[in-house]
């Protein structure tokens, strides 16, 4: 039985699938050729990440398809309900990348509060001629300890982010329409741990109380943060989005950054991927990464082996 891992899969995932009796194909097939390739090569399982889309047209064109797998959490590039209606299993790996995404959130937070994103741009240009000027420009750093982090969406990734925030000594608040409260266990290297309960509150109150906000929600029909929401936030707020593009109104965000309402933003995802707006890319108050939340070796190993385990279990 053949598996097409069109957006790649870790070596550990390949080995696990091969041990389970599957042939793994890692050839990158262009989006418009996926259906033909699947049919011509008798592929039973298609694995994707965020690049390849598996829509109704591919599902209809590939009657031999038995499993569609998403390496990661979000399923917005797959027509999940339609696939299931055709008897196709749809799987993902919701727990595998939580820590990796949470760490990237804090990479953006630390970058923002200490101006690393802008300093790293300007030091190569002016470090030898304007050292004292740059030192003065980046002198007003902010400590995260003691500040309030508002987490919009307290699912697995939100909870991983909360653990890191609590470890730093931050106050954590959350808003989630589906999770009224959650117990967060912060485990330490020596086996000890602490547990605290976070009770979900309204989005409006979270926006008003937070010093920093991080988003951990699936793709939305509309914006979660727009001009109205930005207006009720504290002056000097920091905002991070490592979830999905389109949950923040980027035009309103740039306006708020330019006015000083928002101190900085950290963006791993964008409204127009893979071609983000130049107004976003060139803004010196935005820390930028190209949708790499789950792009760690450890996460990819977990994703690959978890996908393999689910596929083997389903096809037994």
Automatic annotation (TrEMBL):
InterPro entries: D-iso_2-hydroxyacid_DH_PdxB (IPR050418), D-isomer_2_OHA_DH_cat_dom (IPR006139), D-isomer_DH_NAD-bd (IPR006140), NAD(P)-bd_dom_sf (IPR036291). The keyword Zinc does not apply. Coiled coil: none annotated. Keywords: NAD, Oxidoreductase. Residues 107-293 form the D-isomer specific 2-hydroxyacid dehydrogenase NAD-binding domain. The keyword Metal-binding does not apply. It comes from the Bacteria. Residues 8-315 form the D-isomer specific 2-hydroxyacid dehydrogenase catalytic domain. Belongs to the D-isomer specific 2-hydroxyacid dehydrogenase family. This is D-2-hydroxyacid dehydrogenase. It comes from Flavobacterium xylosi.
């Amino acid at each position: 039985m053949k598996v097409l891992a069109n957006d790649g899969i870790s070596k550990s995932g390949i080995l696990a699938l091969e041990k389970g009796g599957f042939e793994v194909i890692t050839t990158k097939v262009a989006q418009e050729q996926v259906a033909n390739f699947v049919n011509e090569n008798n592929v039973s399982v298609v694995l994707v990440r965020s690049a390849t889309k598996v829509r109704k047209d591919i599902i209809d064109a590939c009657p031999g398809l038995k499993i569609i797998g998403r390496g990661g959490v979000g399923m917005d590039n797959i027509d999940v309900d339609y696939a299931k209606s055709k008897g196709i299993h749809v799987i993902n790996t919701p727990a595998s990348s939580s820590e990796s995404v949470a760490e990237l959130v804090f990479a953006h937070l630390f970058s923002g509060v200490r101006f690393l994103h802008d300093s790293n741009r300007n030091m190569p240009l002016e470090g030898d001629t304007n050292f004292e000027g740059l030192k003065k420009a980046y002198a007003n750093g902010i400590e995260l300890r003691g500040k309030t982090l508002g987490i919009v969406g307290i699912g697995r990734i939100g909870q991983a982010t909360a653990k890191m925030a609590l470890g730093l000594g931050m106050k954590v608040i959350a808003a989630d329409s589906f999770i009224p409260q959650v117990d967060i266990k912060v485990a330490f290297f020596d086996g000890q741990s602490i547990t605290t309960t976070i009770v979900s509150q309204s989005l409006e109150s979270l926006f008003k109380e937070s010093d920093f906000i991080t988003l951990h929600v699936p793709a939305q029909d509309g914006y979660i943060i727009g001009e109205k929401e930005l207006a009720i936030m504290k002056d000097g707020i920091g905002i991070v989005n490592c979830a999905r593009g389109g949950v923040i109104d980027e035009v309103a965000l740039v306006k708020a950054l330019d006015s000083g309402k928002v101190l900085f933003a950290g963006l791993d995802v964008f409204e127009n991927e893979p071609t983000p707006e130049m107004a976003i890319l060139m803004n010196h108050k935005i820390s930028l990464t190209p949708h790499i939340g789950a792009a760690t070796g450890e996460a990819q190993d977990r994703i690959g082996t978890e996908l393999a385990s689910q596929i083997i279990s389903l096809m037994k």
